[in-house]
Amino acid sequence: xxxxxxxxxxxxxxxALFAVPSTSFAAPPAGIPAPxxxxxxxxxxxxxxxxxxxxxxxxxxxxxMAQFPDNVEFFAPHGMTVIGRKALGEMxxxxxxxPAQGGTCGLKVTAEHTFVVGDVINVQWRADAPFLAEPYRGxxxxxxxxxxxxxxxxxxxxxxxxxxxxxxxxx
Length: 171
Fold this sequence. Notes:
Elements: H1 45-57, H2 61-65, E1 73-76, E2 80-83, H3 85-95, E3 108-117, E4 120-128, E5 136-145, E6 148-154
Parallel strand pairs: 1-6
Antiparallel strand pairs: 1-2, 3-4, 4-5, 5-6
């Protein structure tokens, strides 16, 4: 199923799993700012993924969106797909928020295994956070092209996060 809508949010957040706790959220206020930020290319596939993780570490929507081409594709569980930079920006605008606002900022993800195949970086990870009752495990594949993140495939499903009592995010 293809969708440029925000219905993907409950299944997404694989990229958000590279967030670390932060009290500063650089997400756009309501909606998506125009225009999208200028693209910033990285010299290697590994640096593309490192920048992606760092952007989430600071919950920085502008920095995150600077790494995607117009034709980016994002693949999530349950056959959900987001196609295009603008649609992905709308999705990430909902993600780079504190859990109380329905986002995932505060997750701390640890890579447990990384495997590089050409320009694809595959990462198996564990997510921990003060608001989680137990760690969450998943995997992402990041396909890079010309210094940008061309596609991402994730196993992350936010609905499967086991939250501590009273810490459940709004969805």
